Amino acid sequence: MDVYIRIEHALEAALRPTTSTAPPRLGQAIRQAVFPGGARFRPRLSLAVARACGDAHPELARAAAVAVELLHCASLVYDDLPCFDDAPLRRGQPTVHVTFGEEVAILAGNALIVRAFELLGEQVTQTPLHTGLVLATLARGVGSPHGIAAGQAWESEPRIDLRAYHRAKTGALFEAAVIAGAVAGGGDARAWRGLGDLLGEAYQVADDLRDAHGESHRLGKPVGQDAAHGRPSAVGLLGADGALRRLHRLLADAIERVPSCPGRSDLVLLIERWADTLVPREPVEAPRIASAS
Amino acid sequence: MDVYIRIEHALEAALRPTTSTAPPRLGQAIRQAVFPGGARFRPRLSLAVARACGDAHPELARAAAVAVELLHCASLVYDDLPCFDDAPLRRGQPTVHVTFGEEVAILAGNALIVRAFELLGEQVTQTPLHTGLVLATLARGVGSPHGIAAGQAWESEPRIDLRAYHRAKTGALFEAAVIAGAVAGGGDARAWRGLGDLLGEAYQVADDLRDAHGESHRLGKPVGQDAAHGRPSAVGLLGADGALRRLHRLLADAIERVPSCPGRSDLVLLIERWADTLVPREPVEAPRIASAS
Question: How confident is the prediction for chain B on average, in pLDDT?
Fold first, then answer.
């Protein structure tokens, strides 16, 4: 079975107990946060790393991949809220708070975070040592001070370090996906450090480029958000050309960083295909910033 | 050392890595969500049950008690948000979103949930079986469909079962505190089922009574919220006298439910002292509902 379909099935199975007897609107909101998905790159990356390492604990690898995606989906629900991006659209659909209201959206995000850790908890008795490491890895990727919560919170600070901000907001969960995959696969996690940071920074620079260039149809969400919210952005800092050069450099560095291992070529192929979707297709010009006029 | 002080120290230690290098406002918001605390009844209850069961895994019991309190504090941050209660005060202080804004408050809540599960993850290698059970218990107490997230979400449904609503919104975390304590203490969790539900329902009925009777000074938060938000309430359903009778009945049932064990008398004393703080001191009259006039 295709890995994308396996991930969808695993997500379905993971959400069934959480949604089937829940308050109906909450159950629907949780599902809308997760389905239909985007590229599912984070769980695919995690599974590919686990396979590249020998797939020592496949059930833990699957739980980790699903948990990574649920945590990612929760972060998108929060990102879209009126007090953050106030986004009406996500993946071309109305955002969760637009459909169900802010209360239910916030509770759906909470339930997704809790479910992610609950799934890991189910693996504890079979592989305690590895599950403990995976749990710590994912908590680091989404919590404070290194993870998504901290990354988002840097936006509320008067002074900001763009690299630390991007690393926490986006890189941390990519890094967690890689390290969790390596641990669950039975690999040496140290050899895999830094790959996720590079991929995360590449993703963020590409997102900044597309936000500035107005590729709303490819993003499935509104553009011009960085400028509108006065957020730090790679385009604002390096210019469009500089940001594009940085994106290519980061992707090349990431591929070089993949350690030598039996599944290396499959993993590099996954990253290359993903990289193709990141690099803007339109010629790079001075960014068109959405204005209120 | 007094158990209350030990809990404060354990909370301090648990939050240090989360706040010390975090974005400064996020770190402060996380601390404001947790300190100064209320009665810390949930972690005290959890520790007392663990002791009553023989305190087989004291480190796990402590981690569970801290996790329960962090999850409780996170739920209060969300509860107070503009889209829920829109509360300006909590424990007599400005609420987290009033001081730091909604974004930082939501992220602080997220970080607290993640930290709670991270703390449990740290116990995995020492006592995998028991840690797995404690983790599942707490996830059930705060997630969906049985925990706080589901309980809050019932408020957004057109039809509601008051008992299911209270059980999920309040009872589930009390129940989780009791069961987690029993598991960490090495007891038979089955013997302890139902005690937390009774305590949680008692707490909710007492909260409804005080909300309706306007005991703002004792609650440290605004009153008349149930009527103002059209929320189901024991006072609305049973009347003030009926709700007070129900509160006494629930407390008596809870004490009767405590299984025979070496630490039974200490635990009953803790519950009785807590019960004293729950029963309204003012004579019960027809509820004074806050009106807009």
Answer: 91
